[in-house]
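Changelog note: in this version the structure field was regenerated for every chain. One regenerated record is shown below for reference.
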Amino acid sequence: MPNYQADLDTVFHALADPTRRAVLNQLSRGPQAVSQLAEPFDMALPSFLQHLKVLEESGLVRSEKTGRVRTCAMDAKNLSAAEAWIAEQRAIWEGRLDRLEDYLVELKTKGKNHGRKR
């Protein structure tokens, strides 16, 4: 469980930044060279490389160098772990809200029955 939690922490840290989410969006269409990925962003290449480093450390992006070109690709395996965690949390909260709704309906029903004249 601790490794699972550490993976989630790095994935959510990576997803917390809009630049990194935009990079993932670009990579969802297929692998791209770093220079191609950096083009739409108004920042120096070293700053952009820091974002790629965070994405690689989270396991969401992998890269390989062929000659002078480094190409990045999305690796959705860790993204699936984050999706599973979110789905689990959603199920827990939906269950709690359902129980709260049932309780409120029960209170309302008791209130109506208690107020009736016999």
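Spot check on this record: The first helix runs from residue 2 to 15. DSSP finds five helices and three strands in the chain.
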